[in-house]
């Protein structure tokens, strides 16, 4: 006999399946309208590509050179580096030498004092840009020749204030990198598409943000958020709050995977989810009801029978695999995901552990520093601060 409490637990354990069904519908709605979005790219205003740089990423020259090979009539590429002795400087010098036909400028020093080094550099880059339209991207990004035409085209609509798009790893060399990839397509992007369906796009993804200096100035520019974490999410939100649309494209750019170990993956994902806990506390807490794997285990624990095990785990696996296929394989054309589908339960177990761990963290590790998040702002951990790092 199953008690009422057991019935209640079994009922609650089905909630992740409802979320998965919403995710399937959201993904189908987004990608089925692909043709309408991929309109002719005949809007080509002059563009400033802005890149804040710190240190040397793997395959840096190949990444940077892809931005110099754009099928686009008029653009410049601006880099901002902290110091002249940064190890990336020789790569930038070679870039300028190999692409003399491109307008490439390298700025040294940000001139700002905010705790978010990337944002401080972006504030200077925006102020130095020659053109109104700016495309902001991370240093580990590699793009195809149609990239600028694709991400700039939606800005022809005056209702669109910013454009962003998906990204995928170029090549996975370690188990951690493969696990990160399956996590992006089966979990992170799924959540993005659900958010878009339910509340619209009120965020941007850091590897690409196309916008204008006027839209940035509308919220005070990067100087107004130079001590805030998750600047990409904030930029999208602050532009949306001005009444503009943020366009999410069904287009994929590439990033160079850099997860050498499971420790690297764990700390980067933990940093991200701790930031989300501070910025969207109720949304972070609500993630518990989207975690299918632990709820399946809970259902079997309260009623250990073959029927419950088959029903819950069968539904979980079918829905999770279908979600990943729809986003990664059908939607974003990532054929290599077939061989990684078996990692979905492994990722879900890791993601749940990271979610639990996030409640015990009072700080985040970012680059070579450690920071508290207080009132939505980054505060460096110093020897004079008595609060434990967590």
The proportion of residues in beta strands is 15-25%
* Main sheet properties: 8 strands, mixed
CATH topology of the largest domain: Spore Coat Polysaccharide Biosynthesis Protein SpsA, Chain A
Count of separate structural domains: 2
Ranges where pLDDT stays below 50 over 5 or more residues in a row are 383-390
Overall average residue pLDDT: 90
CATH superfamily of the largest domain: Spore Coat Polysaccharide Biosynthesis Protein SpsA, Chain A
Can you tell me the overall shape? globular
Q: Report how far the terminal alpha carbons are from each other.
A: 44 Å
Q: What share of residues is helical?
A: 40-55%
Q: Element order, helices and strands?
A: HHHEHEHEHEEHEHEHHEHHHHHEEE
């Amino acid at each position: 006999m199953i008690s009422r409490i057991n019935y209640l637990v079994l009922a609650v354990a089905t909630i992740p399946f409802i979320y998965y069904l919403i995710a399937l519908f959201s993904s189908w709605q987004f990608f089925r309208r692909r043709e309408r979005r991929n309109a002719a790219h005949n809007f080509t205003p002059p563009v400033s590509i802005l890149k804040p740089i710190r240190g040397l990423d793997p395959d840096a020259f190949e990444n940077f050179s892809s931005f110099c090979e754009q099928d686009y009539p008029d653009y410049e590429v601006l880099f901002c580096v902290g110091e002249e002795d940064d190890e990336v400087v020789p790569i930038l010098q070679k870039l300028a030498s190999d692409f003399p036909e491109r307008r490439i400028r390298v700025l040294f020093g940000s001139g700002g004092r905010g705790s978010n080094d990337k944002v401080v550099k972006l504030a200077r880059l925006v102020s130095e840009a020659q053109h109104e339209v700016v495309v902001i991207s991370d240093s580990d990004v590699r793009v195809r020749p149609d990239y600028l035409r694709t991400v700039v085209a939606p800005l022809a609509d005056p209702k669109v204030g910013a454009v962003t798009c998906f990204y995928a790893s170029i090549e996975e060399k370690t188990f951690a990198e493969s696990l990160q990839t399956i996590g992006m397509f089966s979990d992170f992007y799924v959540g993005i598409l659900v958010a878009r369906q339910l509340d619209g796009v009120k965020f941007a993804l850091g590897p690409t943000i196309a916008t204008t200096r006027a839209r940035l100035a509308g919220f005070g520019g990067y100087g107004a958020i130079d001590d805030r974490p998750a600047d990409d999410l904030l930029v999208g939100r602050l532009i949306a709050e001005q009444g503009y649309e943020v366009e999410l494209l069904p287009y994929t750019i590439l990033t160079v995977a850099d997860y050498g170990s499971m420790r690297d993956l764990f700390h980067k994902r933990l940093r991200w989810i701790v930031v989300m806990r501070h910025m969207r506390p109720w949304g972070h807490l609500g993630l518990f009801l989207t975690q299918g794997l632990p709820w399946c285990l809970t259902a079997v624990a309260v009623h250990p029978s073959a029927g419950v095990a088959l029903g819950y785990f069968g539904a979980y696996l079918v829905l999770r695999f279908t979600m990943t296929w729809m986003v990664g394989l059908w939607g974003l054309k990532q054929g290599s995901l077939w061989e990684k589908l078996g990692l979905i339960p492994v990722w879900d177990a890791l993601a749940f552990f990271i979610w639990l761990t996030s409640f015990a963290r009072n700080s985040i590790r970012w680059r070579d520093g450690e920071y508290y998040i207080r009132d939505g702002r980054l505060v460096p951990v110093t020897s004079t601060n008595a609060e434990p790092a967590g």
